[in-house]
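#data-curation
PF: Archiving a pair of folding outputs for the training set. Convention for this channel: one message per protein, sequence first, structure tokens after, nothing in between. First:
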Amino acid sequence: MNFFWKIFFSTIIISSVTFSIGSYFMIDSQFRSSLSREISASFEENDILCYALKQEFKTEYTMPYHSEKYYELVVAEKQIIEKIAQSVTINTSKGNIPFRLNDDSFRSIFSSSTLDIDNQMLSRLSSDKKGYEIVKLGHDYFLHTASPLIFQKETLYLENFRNITFLFENRSEQYRRFNYLVLTMIMTCGAVVFLVTRWLTKPLKYLSRATRQIANGHFDQRVKLLSRDEIGKLSKDFNKMAVKLEQTVEELKDATRRQEDFIGSFAHELKTPLTSMIGYADMLRSKKMDQEQIILSADYIFKEGKRLESLSMKLLEMIVLQKQDFTMKRVYATDYFDEIGGIMYPALKEENIELISFAEDAVLQIEPDLMKTVCMNLVDNARKSMDHGGKIVFSGKWCKDEYRISVEDTGKGMEESELSKITEAFYMVDKSRARAQGGAGLGLAICADIVRMHHAKMEFASSPGKGTCVTIMLREAKKI
């Protein structure tokens, strides 16, 4: 069953049961209260009758009768009691009060009532207690009240009757009205609950619909915030989850694209030298060439082979760097900078590029070979950014608690939009120029991994036509 119908039916059932129980107790309480008043009135009527009979008895027995007559009265006691009872009449707004007078054997002496009600209740009364019972005759209900009455040291029993049919009729009428009211209440409440439940569950429908859309791949789905209650908070959390999921999916897609670009670029990098190598090798194998052509072809095969070897080694280094931990060593900065400058000097001099190398005294905690790869890569990239001539400044300086290694050139520079991409594998700002110079676009990607392994940071600053500055900030360094 849908959550909507669960709320709808449970609300209707709870409302109906609660209303029914409350109404039943209210009607029953009202009936009992009215019945209690009728019982009290019946007892009062019984007391009035008792008082009236006693007064008549006193009047009858205090009259100046002769002793003979008094004796006759004693002998004909029942006739006297009957005569006295006949003279007693109590009028109320409902008419005369019907009553019945019985002797101590529960035999009727006098009755002003035509009701055929037995007097078995009298046997359950004590000599000083009153009692009542509700008697049903046909469709009518009567309140039968009785009490003992002492006369001439004998116990008589006085019964009076009160018609309370209207109480039961009123109760029945109230129950009938209650049934109609319950039906009306259920219909009205049903309509209201239906609208309220639909309004309350509407955000859940939006959530369900958005969830299905996301399951079908539409990760841009969001839910409208219609309230600030628990469902509103759930919708807000759902939107946060959807945003995070969309970002994660986009990151996965981006990673997949980069992986595809990586594979495509690597395949292209392999295909170009292999095609040339196969072509020149085929020429050497199948054609007769002079000595100079043979040397040129062999030299080209050699250079392309070395480029392919370099490309493979760089790729291998990238994979290895993700899997191994390296032991850090203490290295003196000045000696380290002199060694790198000496290695790069011949290649830079050949292209008429000036290298200025200097370093402040410090002890660096690094992996020497890997960090040397980073520095040489940065210097070589600076060389490739210049056509003919220029200047490269390779320096090491203290800045507060960090030791900063910088490579600054006077080359072509880059646009700001290129800076965030240059550390991606196979990314090249000028692909034709980079490939012509033997590049594959893997250098800075390897550098970024090495720098991260040293828990350091690498920043780029560049302006088109003014050059580029790369800075590595090492924390693991000490002053001498």
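PF: Second:
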Amino acid sequence: MHIPDGFIPLWQCAIYYVILIIALYFAGKWAKANLDEKRIPLLAVLAAGIFAIMSMNMPIPFGTSGHMVGGALVAIVFMAPEAAVLVFTAVLLIQALFFGDGGITALGANVFNMAIVGGCVGLYTYKGLNGIIGKYPSIFLGAWLATLVAAVVCALEMAIAGTFPLSVGVASMALYHAFIGLIEGVLTVIVIFALEKYRPDLLAWNRE
């Protein structure tokens, strides 16, 4: 799902960077109001875990990759997509600069897909379904859907840029990530279950 340099024209990259700057502004305001000495280490631990799971790439035709994401996990744990924006901006920047995974020019697009789209889809799917099907099924579906939708949005962006065939590209990304999302859903449930059992004070819904 990482978009490399050169896959999106610079003028389109600039649009995604504007979105990123706006998102970082609101994420900074959220961090100032909500992060404390207990929750900053949790954010760092989740960032390290996300760095690890995103490093396990599955090649996808036409030059991109499939992998677990973690946007839903961060957004649900903190009940804020702003937390995902902070985590993914840092993680994706490090990956692009030092590991050649994703591009600097495409950083805005990659953060948009994985943090903003993934975080919002995961969090609001959880919120919408929690009262209907229960906490953990809604967490699972939120994480699965976040991975799938973020991948499809990524494919659409590259199709608009002219570097990815629309129908085959979207189908490939959707198929791979529909499977990957199942694994991500299970891992998201496991992590949140463990936090709720051993450190419930760190979960946002226990602090409201």
